[in-house]
Automatic annotation (TrEMBL):
InterPro entries: ABC_transp_permease. It is a multi-pass membrane protein. This is ABC transporter permease. The keyword Chaperone does not apply. The lineage of its organism: Bacteria, Pseudomonadati, Bacteroidota, Flavobacteriia, Flavobacteriales. Pfam families: BPD_transp_2. Keywords: Cell inner membrane, Cell membrane, Membrane, Transmembrane, Transmembrane helix, Transport. PANTHER family: ABC TRANSPORTER PERMEASE PROTEIN YPHD-RELATED (PTHR32196:SF21), ABC TRANSPORTER PERMEASE PROTEIN YPHD-RELATED-RELATED (PTHR32196). It comes from Olleya sediminilitoris. Its main location: membrane. It is found in: Cell membrane. The chain crosses the membrane at residues 20-43, 55-74, 80-113, 125-145, 170-190, 221-239, 275-294.
Length: 322
């Protein structure tokens, strides 16, 4: 029988276990309090809006990374795919109508993700190797198609997307709303949909899932394809914010996405992780960057802090599993 919250807290070490179990939420709250104490501008609408805009692109690919990691895989290609797909969207929106350009970009992203999915699921290639290869290819193609220079939006459709990406609805940036909708849809999928439950089952025990009749290869293929489609969505958002597609976009975003998922408590071995915790992980990374920027800390020390937090998050997972 499951213990009530009061009973859990009253057991030996119960409070510590409770704090460890919900460490992501507590870390987020502490960072918000700390940010408010060190800076008077933290809670201003401009700063909070900029924070949400900055994390939305990485947040979307983090959700794609989550569903891949839930199967026990990894996707190192998403950052480079953002660059390639941002360039592709900029080219397409200058040629075709906006809805068609968006659709074509997402289809291309789905197709690129399918390449990784096919190599991993059907050719039994290690996810690290397959996605590392696609990462290199995608970054190279982004420079080839852009000829090494940013591709600027020149049409009315491109200008509309730029306005959409830089404006807000009810005080919330439009691109953050898109991110939150994706988080909610993923949360519902993982908790209530058969697809979500199956990918968690595969990550928990792939062999048992296969023996029970689950088409493991099919679902492993699909999670990489979905990750590619979400990378395309992030690329459209990022390109629209700046009114151009650049081959330099998405640099090291795959690492930030992995960090956000791990900080959110997901296991790199698969089978454990939630969309809401990944959202918390994304916001924690964003808050850390925001705090350090407010303190005028250079970018290189920020990378050190992020690495230390990843180690801390993994150690917390080990403590929680004991």
């Amino acid at each position: 029988m499951a213990l009530t919250l009061k009973q859990q807290l009253s057991t030996p070490g119960g409070i510590l276990k409770f704090l460890v179990k919900y460490n992501t939420i507590f870390i987020f709250i502490l960072l918000v309090i700390f940010s408010a104490l060190i800076s008077d501008v933290f809670f201003t609408s401009v700063n909070l809006s900029n924070l949400l805009k900055q994390v939305s692109g990485i947040g979307i690919i983090s959700i794609g990374m989550l569903i891949v990691i839930l199967t026990g895989g990894i996707d190192l290609s998403v950052g480079s795919m953002v660059a390639l797909l941002a360039v592709a969207f900029a080219i397409l929106v200058n040629i075709f109508a906006l809805p068609l350009a968006i659709l074509m970009t997402i289809v291309i992203g789905f197709g690129l993700g399918s390449v990784s999915g096919y190599l991993v699921a059907y050719q039994k290639m290690a996810p690290f190797v397959a996605t590392l290869a696609l990462m290199t290819i995608a970054r190279g193609l982004s420079f080839i198609y852009s000829k090494g220079s940013p591709v600027t939006f020149t049409t009315v459709g491109g200008q509309y997307m730029s306005n959409f990406a830089n404006n807000s609805t009810l005080g919330i940036p439009n691109i953050a709303i898109v991110f939150f909708i994706i988080v909610i849809c993923t949360m519902v999928m993982l908790r209530y949909n058969v697809f979500g439950r199956l990918i968690i089952a595969i990550g928990s025990n792939e062999e048992a899932s296969r023996l029970s009749g689950i088409k493991v290869n099919k679902y492993k293929f699909l999670v990489y394809a979905i990750s590619g489609a979400l990378a395309a969505t992030a690329a459209i958002i990022v390109a629209s914010r700046t009114n151009l597609g650049s081959p330099n976009m998405g640099m090291a975003w795959e690492l930030d996405a992995i960090a956000a998922v791990v900080i959110g408590g997901a296991s790199l071995n698969g089978g454990k992780g939630t969309a809401i915790n990944t959202l918390m992980g994304v916001l924690i990374l964003g808050l850390i960057g925001n705090i350090l920027n407010l303190l005028n800390v250079p970018s290189y020390p920020q990378q050190v802090v992020k690495g230390a937090i990843i180690i801390f998050a993994v150690l917390l997972q080990r403590f929680e599993s004991k």
